[in-house]
Each structure stands twice: as structure tokens, then as C-alpha cells.
Amino acid sequence: MTELSDRVVETRRTDPASRECVTAPQRAIPPRGKVAAGESVAIAMTVNGTDVTVSVPARMHLADVLREHLGLTGTHLGCEHGVCGMCTVLVDGDAARACLLFAVQCEGAEIVTVEGLGAPDDQHPLQQAFSAHHGLQCGFCTPGMLMSSYDLLANGPKGTEVEPEDLPEEMSGVICRCTGYRGILAAVADVAAEHPEGLPGPKNCASRTLVGRGGGHSTATPGEEAADGAVPGAALPAEVRMPGGAPSATVEVRSTLSAPVEKVWAVLDDFDRLARCLPGAELVEVLDGDRYRGRAKVALGPVKLSFEGLAQVIEREPAEHRLRVLAQGADTGGSATQADIRLAAEAGPDGGTVLRADAALFLSGRIAQFGRALAGDVSRRLFEQFAEAVDETARTGAAPDVSSGPSPVRIAVGAAVDAVKRAAARGRQRVQAAIARRRAR
Amino acid sequence: MKAASFAYVRPATLDDVLAELAGGDGKVLAGGQSLVPVLAMRLGRPATLVDINSVEGLDGLARDGDVVRVGATVRQRTLERSPLAAAVPLLPLALPFVGHRELRSRGTVCGSLAHADPAAELPAVACCLGATLEVAGPDGRRRVPAEEFFVGAMSTGAGPEDVLIGAEFPIAGAGEGHGFAEIARRHGDFALAGVATRVRVDGDGAVQQARLTGFGISDRPVTRDVTELLRSAGPRRAEPDLRAATAELAAEIVDTGGDAHGSTGYRRRLFAVLAARELQKAHRRALPTATEDPS
Prior knowledge:
A: alpha+beta, Ubiquitin-like (UB roll), Alpha-D-Glucose-1,6-Bisphosphate, Chain A, domain 4, 7-stranded antiparallel beta sheet, B: alpha+beta, Uridine Diphospho-n-acetylenolpyruvylglucosamine Reductase, domain 2, Uridine Diphospho-n-acetylenolpyruvylglucosamine Reductase, domain 3, Enolase-like, domain 1, 3 domains, 4-stranded antiparallel beta sheet, 11 helices, globular
């Protein structure tokens, strides 16, 4: 089986009547008192390496919890009665139908979804092979196919030594209705052949923050649970956690400011003034432990996101004028963001300051569908505006008004210019390659 | 499709399970792989689901004398992986046909028995081997032979206030061979017709006893002693020589009505072919110099 944490308990019972007592290596689950129909119950489990707690009625199945409460929409739902296999996930290491498991049965379970299998820039070998063999077209069955084939090669009776001719039967638990099975089976056979020593484990299960859809959107049949009021959703995070896994985007901005370094540091060192310089940010509450509750707005054309979140200064080095802030936020539309930001001010030329901002950004939910280049571009503009605002605050003592959020016009223009530059660079490379080919002839 | 609302409880003891089931409007939840689709389609709306997965002692999987005992919450896949399954050769033959891997991860052996779908594999295995099922109810525990347990389509000797707590499968002795096959439109679907066979031979290779259970062909698994049938098929017990006799048997016991997937006549034909094939295989495997055939 897939490597599991020590929570999978093996309890060896001693029954004198048995000659040979083998205990099923099944996870023990603690008892649970009666939950009335429609009543919500708090369920703690581990999803893709992260501990989560959701509060849902007993009738809600695991797939709905993953999709509606944790924003993990990679797990698809087809038939919802166990036939099609779209919702296949790993439960305690083995593949199972997420529509045939009530979440309340999963207390303490370890769940791995397709999001945990690999990251866009660090794909699992199965994901790479599906791509290489055209093992997907519309993509609807792909998460189920990936999780089922993972289970087959990791936990199947023959592991990666499964014979290619057995694959049609072994992969029959998930239905594809568009591209056909050939590419899928070729991809699985390829991965099996490439890994005689065993299949690599899931690649994206480092601990991170999963922020649910605000408002606790419930999939209850209208009227059925509505009488009991809204199901409480994921609350605002109480602590900022270090992100894990590869960031969605990294940003490095180096700005030359005219204000002297001590004055720049004075702005950075005062979180209230620092927050005023962040476009769209608003400091709501100062908490203990150098933590701050706030809001941030991002508006880009039709995209309007409003994040509520928490920031925490985890390193503050006045002598070196360095600051490190972790921030995380979620918006009601199911987008979540997390950032690890390092700010450093150094004396620059002509009595000015060089301000460095390095940030690792983690995006999930709808915002992640932005495409990373755009997310990175927008963040870069944001830090450039931030640096200008810090400079102005340091020089004049008053912050400019950036509370309305990143200027759509300036960001859109800046991002567009960047996009044009990239396209031009690609064009130049294509022309140069074509010239090289012609010369070679 | 979502299940209707239900109350849920996961008791720590068997007594508490039985207390929750008292009244008859509760339903036992073990793996849920047969029950949850029923709830999702709202074909069933039990008031309470009584999850038995926290009851200590129900997850035992052990060799106990001349039987392998499988507790109520042992998953099909757990048994499939266990070295104990080899002691009951029909189990490793039949388990890969039970649903799909993804369903066997959660589905339990006893749950499949208690659900008693007429086309299910494990009830047929239990009947063919003469397994014993242990039922706990308001009046205490009782042991029921598998052949008496299955009384109709999804109907068993366990009532709404009872819970099946274990199944005992006899361990195969020397000179015993088995066969198992089914035909379904797609692997993992319910069988159009299927058979489980067990043949015992003596030291000289003479047939001592032959048993056959058909499934997917009636409202419950149907078991017959086919010793004479096998003996009458000539010394080679070759499949074609058995075919006339199994066709006769098919006419007698295949009584399921036709449906979109196959007529009664088609199922009879499937059954006759599978029965001849798997009887021959079981016989060959039972012989002292048994060598596994490649088919």
C-alpha cells in the first residue's frame, strides 16, 4: 500500500481460540455518538497531506466535501452511484469512490486527490504519460483514470509488473466516453514499464492551507437542509502556516527609491504604514504575536476578488533592514492565496535605497486558473506600486491613496506590455531558428 | 444523486449496534458499496445508518481450526491481499470479479453476503463451499448454513434487527480443486451468469464429490451436487463430454427472466458452457499431479 502515516493502527488481538490470528490492516475509526438527520457534524481528516475539519451533515458524501467545502474540484462527479469512477480518490492509500463514502465515514482518514498527485510544474509520471500518449481529450474522466491507475501500479496485486494485456480489465473501473481507452492504457503501460522498482508516490502532498469556499455552500437539496440554516463553512484561518510544495508563482522586484534607507525601514517596520502602501490592502485588526487581520481587493477587468486574511511577521531584523511576512487569504468565490514575502532595504546610490521584494505565491481555487504568467505579472506590478508608495511615504510622511486596489489600467497595461515583450521574444526565437535551419540545408 | 437525510451513529459495541437496530428502521453500514447506491437513488430511506466500523473485534480475519473466519468489517481487498485467502482457493478465484478494485477497497465480504444480490459472487462461493454465517440479533447469536441464509433476491435469514457478524469458509483439503467464472458485459458489472465449482477426488483420482453453484441465474445462488454428472462424463471429464449434462442442468435451474442484456435462453447457454468448463478445471486441479492449465 501507499506509505501512510502512523495513524493506520495495527491492532493485534489475542483470541485464544484462533490458531493463526491475522489482523486486517485496516484503519481503526473511533466511535461516534448519534448525529440526528440534517444535523452537521465536525469531521477531521487529512487531505493531500493537510489536516482539515469540515462541518457537514452525515448524508454528504466525500466528493461533495472535497469539491464544495475544500475547493478541490479536480475530483469530478459523474453518476454519483458508484458506476462511472469519475470521483476515484485514494482513501488510506487505496482507491475508492468518493461518491460511495459519506464524509462522516472518513473521520481520521487520509485522502489523496488528483491535486495531491502532482503539481502543474512537477507532474507525477502518470500525468506526464497521459499527456504524452494523448490519454485525455475532454479531461472529465482523467482524475478518476489517474487515481485508479495510480492505485493499480502502486497497490495492485502485481504493482508495476502488471501485464499490458491485463490493463483493459484492471482499468475497467473508470469509464471514458470521448477519446477512447487506447491512449490511456498506453500511458499506464508506459509508466509501469518505466518503473520496475515501483511507482513514485504522490508528489504534491506537502502541508498547505486549504481554504474552503466561504459561506459554507451546501449541496443540500433546496429546502431540505435549508430549514436548519446555512452549514458553517471554513472559518477565517486562525494561524498562518508555512506553505509547502512548489509555489504557483515567484516574484522578485528590485526598486530604486529616492528616500534614505533609514526612512524606508521606518515605513516597513510599522505594519500600519506598510499596509497602507500595499495596493488594495486594508488593516482591520492588530493581533498578538505580530499578526494582523486584513482585507485585500484585486480588480482586473471583470475579475474582482476580495480576500480576507491574516498576515504574520515572522522575521524582523532592524539592523539589516529585513522583514519576512507570511500572509494568507481567501475570497468567497473559492479562491485562496498564500504568500511568503521577504522585504529588504539597502542603501542605494545617491543616498537613496534599493528595496528588494521576493515573494513566493501559492494560489488555489479559481484564481489559480488565471494562468501563472498573469498572476506573476499582476503581483510584480503590485510590488512595484508598493515600492513607489513606500518611497512616497518615507519622503513625505504620508501614504498615497492606494486603498482602491491595484489600478486596473496600470496593471493591465503593464501586463499587456509584458505579454507583448514575451510574444516578441518568442517570435525572434522562431525567426532565428528558421534562419539556422535554412543555413543548415 | 444524493442520499436523503438520515441519522448516523457509529457505536463501540455490538450491543449498542443491536440497540440502534431495534425497531427495524435502521440499516447496517459496513463498506456501503451496495447500500450507498441504493440510498443515492432513493430506493431506500432508512431512518438511521448504524456504522459498525468502530465495533471492536469485527475486523478479525483469522484461521480458526478448519475454517477461515472473516469478520463483518473485513474489506474484500483486505481478504484478497491476505495470505489466508489461499487456504480457501475459491476466494482468490472469485474476489477479482467482485466489482472493481475501487469498490473492493471499501466493500466488505460480509456486506456482500448480507446484501444478497442474486448475481453477486461471494454468496455463490459461500454456498458452494458450505460456509457458515454467524448472525447476531435481539435473541442472541445463531449460526446459519449459507445455503439456508439466502432466501430470495436481496433477502436473507438476517432480519432488519440482525447483523451478520462473520462468515466461516472451510479450508480446502488435499484432493480438492475449484473453478470460478462469470460472464458480464463489462468486467465488474453484475454477472449475466456465473458458476463456482468444487471437485474432490480420492488418492487414485476418482471423483468423490462434485458441487456446483450457479449465480445470476435465479433469485438466489443455486447449489447442486453434480458428482454423478461429472462421473458420467467419461474418464477424461472433457468439457465437450460434459456439455449435454450441464445443458440439462441449465434448463432445470436457470429461471431468471430475460432482460435487455440477455434472454433466459442465452443465460442457459452461458451457464451450460461455464459449468462444463469450470467443472473440468476443478477436476483437473483436484488431481494429485494437478498442473495449472494456461486458460
